[in-house]
Amino acid sequence: MEINVPSAFNSLRTLVLLASLFFSMSGHAASQAEISPNVSENPLTVQVNWNHQFQFAGFYAAIKQGYYQEVGLDVSMKNWKPGIRVVDEVVSGRADIGIGYSSMIADYAKGVPIKLIMSSFQFSPMVLLSHQPINDLAELDGKTVMHYGNLQILGLINKAQNLVKNPVISVDSSGNLEDFILHKVDLYGAYTTNEPFRLKQRNKAFFIVDPKSFGVQSYGDLVVTSEALAAKHPEQIQKFKAATIKGWRYAIHHQTEMVDYIMQHYPVVKSREALLNEAKVTTHYVQSGQVPIGKVEPAKLMATAAEAKEVGLISQKEFNRLNMKQFIFNASQYAYTEEESAYLAAHPVIKLANDIDWEPFEFIDKKGQYRGIASDYFALLGQKLGVRFEAQKTLGWAEVLSKTRAGQLEVFSCAVATPEREQYMRFTKPYLSFPMVLVGRKNVSFIESYDALKGQKVAVVNGYWSHETLKQHYPSIELVIVDSVKEGLEAVMDGRASLYSGNLGAINYAIHKYGIIGLHVVGQSNHRFELAIGVTKDNPVLFNILRKGLDSITDEERQQIFNKWIKLEVVNKLDRKQLIEVGGISLAIILTLTFFLLMFRYQKNRQQAYIEKIHELTYATLINMQTLKFEWVSDAFTRLSGYSREELKEMQYLDLATETLSKEEQEAILKQVNAGQSWKGEMEGRANDGHSYWVELTLTPVLDVMGHIQQVWATRVDITDRKRNEQLSITDDLTGLYNRRYFNQIIEREINRAKREHRSLAVAMMDIDFFKTINDTYGHQEGDQVLKQVADVLETSFHRATDFVFRMGGEEFLVISWFKSEAEFQSYLEQLCFKVKSLGIENAASTEGVLTISVGAIYCDSDALTNSEELYKTVDRRLYQAKQTGRNKVVMTD
User: Which of 111, 200, 210, 830 is deepest in the core (most CB within 10 A)?
Assistant: First the structure.
């Protein structure tokens, strides 16, 4: 944002107001009540679904380390016995919490009153053991399968029944691995964390049939409680969940210690060696890629429910009425009384009394959508409460006030509790707080108090709190009534008003959006916009609902909304040249009047305090452009980077950049800054402990008295959480490559870019040959390692800025790249095939004896490019040809 200012002081004044805004937001975002451990411990029993082993290590670790005790819980683990049905134990109250298979989703669909707390495993380790390799489900023809009725196995058998001539025969599991060893059954339901190790110890041959290889997968070890307990003690269940996740983190990093603890404290039927092996394998299921431990997604649960419907565990009617968001435990939903819950059920749509033109707080955009800070808050409240808030899209604020007074609208979305409004509305605690400021033209000096405005024309928006406040407390001010913030600022520019009084956040946003220059903040009121939710006094039930809902919004959620809409970009224009200019002017004043000397000292001290606040707020550093070393470092940046101030001053700035910043990009940034232009962009940094963080970086060159660039200010906004969320949505958990979702997002963009730049586009699809055999022979764990190794080869081979590598699903990959000619592209792909083969990964099913890949590719000049669908069909067809004509080859023609 650019604000034209006559002096550094006025810029700094604006900055400190923004800083005070930020800190006040933090204060209002703070939770009103801290949770402290209970003095008396609440007992909770956990029913496991198998013998005690590392499968439940997260729970044991939480007990061992006192994580449950810290939050006032006394947790004990109930032994498993054959015949125990976990869901029955939970619903009956014989156990408070149960750990069971994903088939409990079918129980929930049939109306069993349970709530899903978390999932210990991100995907199920359940597989079938076989005496011979199974490459096609048709090979299950007439086979006997011993299993526990687990949904993964039922789904696999259901798929096979459509392919076999003789039905697959299911046999209830005896729990005795000898039945498989003695060939009493053809296939045996097992956990990859358990039985394979036991068979290897006894030198018994076996093959693994993994349901995931045939498209059947779900969560494993679902952790549930009864609806009754969840409703009665939601805070206990929430604490249990948090402590268990903490326990799993500990167990993953202290495997040997936890194995010994389990053996000492629980009746274990496995050897220590077996438990250690189980621990090693289990980690892969508990913590998958960047997915948080315990995380459950409604969409994945619905996919499992669809599988349950296919195998006949639930009916179409039961499936249709499923709501997985209701299945997942959410502590906030239990904060409401029966009367409040009934109100929400009876009022699925609640109308808001909102402003349509008060950016960034709330407004209607060009597409007719309700947007802004308040909009984001109410979208979040809607998710938590299970209702939809309907905004007014055509009513001006004056009309909204009129309808609210008349009782036609009953919820102020974002308003100040004025004495007049409090006559008919009841307000929650403020959830936003912003200072009221004065804005004037560049020739207006700083105004210390609103009392000095007697007789002056001040623009205010009709009906806003600032309008009411000035009318009530400053009757001597001549008010110029306008309809919007933009009109108020324009009134100052065209001379209709000397000043505009309003909300600093709205002013900052409007100046940025409309490119208004020549204005600056010239004063601040002691009054603040304390923005809250208001509800008509005749509806106390709704008021309590919204008050509780607002309290349930976390600090992180509040901060995320704040950062989305409020940006402290005026820092871009703060440089030493301005400080020198104001110093020169001030010096002249000092020489003229002693009084101004005292004032200057006073203001300069305040300026320095403001500067320090802003530097800390923006993780600021000052960099020497000759050496690229730090000359000054804020405390905030030392915390962000993990280095001390002394360590940083010995380093070059670029030492903190990750390898993602190429040399070409570095040179381009330095060239722009050396030319006297500010640079702004997203940057990944590497902290002292090795972890990476992301910032929105602004580099502002500082001119010396001769106009030379000797230094540059670097200011930052921490966007690490946002980038991580972005990465989660476009990255494959296992390999770290881009996923198919991201391919769908960018493929048309890359095609259009190639057309626009008149360059070719090279696309190739790869498939690992006979990959299923690796999974079946060596296990899913080994299969995942193979996928990672192939992904590493692809990533190192296609690492240019114009290259994109995707895992499209299973063992299929895709590359988008650029080459000078078709021959060069084909040669490069053939070298890629050789690199994969050279890994020397054993694969008995391959004619080469080792792992290979098949490739289908296309090379298109810009004028031959059509659309993504045709492109994809072509490479897919050519990949099929490569696989049908011998594999381990590249096909680039039909």
Answer: 210
